[in-house]
From TrEMBL:
Coiled coil feature spans: 8-35
Keyword DNA-binding: yes
Family: Belongs to the YbaB/EbfC family.
Subunit record text: Homodimer.
Protein name stated in the entry: Nucleoid-associated protein N783_10575
TM regions (residue ranges): none
SUPFAM superfamilies: YbaB-like (SSF82607)
NCBIfam families: DNA_YbaB_EbfC (TIGR00103)
Tree of life domain: Bacteria
Keywords: Coiled coil, Cytoplasm, DNA-binding
Organism the protein comes from: Pontibacillus marinus BH030004 = DSM 16465
Keyword DNA repair included in the entry's annotation: no
Length: 106
């Protein structure tokens, strides 16, 4: 039985190390900046790793009162793309911790 407890303690230490690495990776992700443009750079959307939009830049040339739909489409395109970038980076970064593990919900 004693050998089993040693293995359990060792496994718990490894899990704690992995948890600290995961927390550090998540903090680093949250500090990252992601950027997407649409319309050849006419609209730029910037987000952080928390999926929060931190900046939107719109070139004056694209602001046409007769074609608001196009501007809205450009903003949506850039916003959706920047959020996808954050999600992809998050999945790549955090996925390294769950590779090979069969954990439901991860």
């Amino acid at each position: 039985m004693k050998g089993g407890m040693g293995n359990m303690n060792n496994m718990m230490k490894q899990m704690q190390k992995m948890q600290k690495k995961m927390e550090k990776a998540q903090e680093e992700l949250h500090e990252m900046t992601f950027e997407s443009t649409a319309g050849g750079g006419m609209v730029k959307v910037v987000a952080n790793g928390k999926k929060q939009i931190t900046d939107v830049e719109i070139q004056e040339d694209v602001v046409d009162p007769d074609d608001v739909d196009m501007l809205q489409d450009l903003i949506l395109t850039a916003t959706n793309d920047v959020i996808k970038q954050v999600e992809d980076k998050t999945n790549d970064t955090m996925g390294q911790f769950t590779k090979g593990m069969n954990i439901p919900g991860m």
